[in-house]
Amino acid sequence: MLRAVFVTGRFGRAMRSFAVLFATFAFMLPSTGHGADGPPPLLAFSARIAGDDARTRLVISFDRKPDYSVHYVSNPVRVIVDLPETSFGLKPESLEPRGLFNEIRYGGMGAGASRLVLSARGPTEITHAEVMPDEDGKGFRLVLDAERIGGARFEKLLREQTWTGTVRATKADRPVAPAKTPGAFIIAVDPGHGGIDTGAIGTASKIEEKQVTLDFARVLVETLSREAGVEAFLTRERDEFLSLPQRVQIARQRNANLFISVHADTLKQKDIRGATVYTISDKASDHLAAELAARENLSDEIAGMPFESEPPEVADILIDLTRRETQAFSINLARSVVSSFEGQIQLINNPHRYAGFRVLQAPDVPSVLLELGFLSNTEDEKLLLDPEWRKKVSGLIASAVQRYRQAAVANGG
User: Fold this and answer.
1) Could you tell me the domains of the chain?
2) 120 DSSP β-pair partners
3) Which helix (H) or strand (E) covers residue 263, if one does?
4) What SS3 state is found at 406?
5) What gap in Å lies between CA 333 and CA 338, rounded to an integer?
6) Helices marked H in 345-386 — which ranges?
7) Nearest Cα to 328, choosing from 354, 309, 290?
8) For the whole model, what pTM was predicted?
9) To pair with 388 at 20 to 30 A between CA atoms, which of 18, 95, 211, 242?
């Protein structure tokens, strides 16, 4: 299950006094994109929503005046509100979906930007949007009035908006770092989810998948980089949103020899536990793999991104031939990882599975998606939060990578 980022905070006068301290503290944290001399993030410290299936009003209070822009996305209908970088100090219940909206998410979109995504039950328009100063002069509130509209009107809104579906912070325009050692074996480690896309939520700890994956990926990168001739890097180094195509793009820009995407999902069947290694395929190996791929492929939709079709070159026959060879290498890597895990850590039944994961679609980079375990299972959840377990599993993956690499070299790969 994928949910929004929630940070509990106090309300009323006490919260407004706390807002200044919170914003100051946020400014002192390691940079998440704003410059060292730039302003701290906005603080959204309270919110409320009211309405019915015809009209709904949403009000969010900030410590400073927010700039904002409103956009629309279809299939499904979503209202997107883009904001500057914002720390959301909101109680979860303050923005529980109601009225026109059946799901509300908010969170970071990367350096300098945040986003509110309002999933609507049908065609919806923001008919009035206004930023107003609070009566006591200590903050500002953003007021959004939404109304149900007809399909033709909504299509007109989509046609007339100039928005392209992205924000400045989501562009993968980071500088490309060359390999430190000529001929190094480059591995891209991709912590799943991030920013507004929190991923799954732990059953007992309520920890978010995006944090679990980042914590593990950092250990994995350190472990891999200690191997002779190997250089590993993170696709994201902090809590930021990256679209699925961007993750692939970053790996290709760095000339990665391998791409490992790290996840820790949840299942309705809480007794299922253990690691799984996935590779890409047009046809899923089983129902569980198909469901997981469908959920993971929703990452961009959760962040309010319009669906991006495949780039034209993917359809090219030469790319298709490269993809087939890459898929074979991906399967070899998956088998090596499973072999390394056997007898050492818990594995799911049939631990090598496959489905149509969009994040594994690099035509020229062997790629696997590693499901470390399930946050819906209490035993898996404890292990996922255990630093010693992370070190052990990272070591096993490093051994698997070295065996894969040696076999590829021996076969002329």
Assistant:
1) 12-169 (2.60.40.3500), 172-410 (3.40.630.40)
2) 101
3) strand 258-263
4) helix
5) 9
6) 378-384
7) 354
8) 0.81
9) 242
